[in-house]
């Protein structure tokens, strides 16, 4: 059984049974430096960032008239799109004759560009479907040629300066998906404009159920169209049209439909460390894959369940982290960092005996030093002591040397990283 001294030190016995003079021997200098434990940083690897994007039709560029070869005026958000997202162009005008060159960065930060044909919107036209005419019972209105092919699909408007509320209209055509659609009785307007709930890809007939001397027109309201990029972007540098128009276009993005790895701000670690994920949202239903390498350069992957208004910590320690990837699409925000990590003061390359350990506080603040032994992967609390300014402590004061087997480790936490200097002495164990 291990016992502890009154001042919190682990009692150890020498395997060699050497004399007091041998125990007092310094042995070789094994290591010297400053205790630099790693203090927790919840966003040291990835700043707090959303896991998905919510649609914003003008998040990249507010509505503006395109001018040939002149880039659109972009919003600040265009410089950093986290997470990456597809790009949309939206207009109520037909800008399909204009090509927009999009230049930016792909989801990995590499250069990316593509050309997008402009959207083909439809500005308001109160009589685009049927010019002014009086309804006759059971007789279809005379329709304009445009009614046969409505691209983009659109709502219909019925406009009259008189009271046609007693007349209903049967509308037959195709819905926005191209399937047959019928509205059996659309009530007429009363000195107003009324709009259908349904969108139409084509209208083949509009037939009133009664006759009236009051005229009516049928058309459509402003109808926007949207085109979307083929690729996702993590930044947009420019969107440049090759033609001009007096009508406006705006640029933005749709709702996210795919998850992307977090944007990392740090990926190489010295010393190696565990990884934390922190969120104020409930992300416990999401799994995240951590990918990287350990201190020996071997590839490691760990699946970590997301936090629920808290912080979760990996089991593995990473010397390099290449990706933190949500395995499914989620909402909410998340940051990545690391927990408090003890300083690895010494890892025994072979069986050794630690004969002396000196520590000095070089800081004006009181330092608390907490030492742990790691024996065969098991952490064993060892020493806890305070150091005043400039105070020096000598461990193993006349006591037996501390034996460490190959791979055993001494880890240390201290109040202020870099404030406590140390020298460690020892020798190889003898049979």
Gyration radius over CA: 37 Å
- Main beta-sheet strand count, sense and barrel state: 5 strands, antiparallel
Mean pLDDT: 92
Domain count: the total is: 4
- The low-confidence parts are 1-24
Oligomer: single chain
Give the percentage of residues in beta strands. Answer: over 45%
What is the architecture of the largest domain at the second tier of CATH?
Sandwich
Class inferred from helices and paired strands: mainly beta
**Assigned CATH superfamily of the largest domain:** Nucleoplasmin core domain
CATH topology of the largest domain: Jelly Rolls
Specify the helix fraction band. Answer: under 10%
Broad shape: rod-shaped
Q: Could you tell me the number of beta strands?
A: 31
Total of DSSP H or I helical runs spanning 4+ residues? 1
CATH class of the largest domain: Mainly Beta
Distance between the termini: 23 Å
Description:
Residues 1-24 have low confidence and may be disordered. The protein has 1 helix and 31 strands. The protein is an all-beta fold and 431 residues long. The chain is rod-shaped and about 115 Å long. Strands 1, 25, 28, 29 and 31 form a 5-stranded antiparallel sheet that branches. It folds into 4 domains: 20-37 and 342-428, Nucleoplasmin core domain (Jelly Rolls, Sandwich); 41-50 and 260-338, Jelly Rolls (Sandwich), CATH 2.60.120; 56-121 and 225-253; 125-220, Jelly Rolls (Sandwich), CATH 2.60.120. The protein has one helix at 20-24, and strands at 28-34, 41-50, 56-64, 85-91, 99-105, 111-117, 125-133, 157-163, 168-175, 180-187, 190-195, 200-208, 216-220, 225-233, 235-241, 249-253, 268-273, 276-282, 287-293, 299-305, 308-313, 318-326, 333-338, 343-347, 352-361, 367-375, 378-387, 392-395, 402-404, 409-414, 420-428.
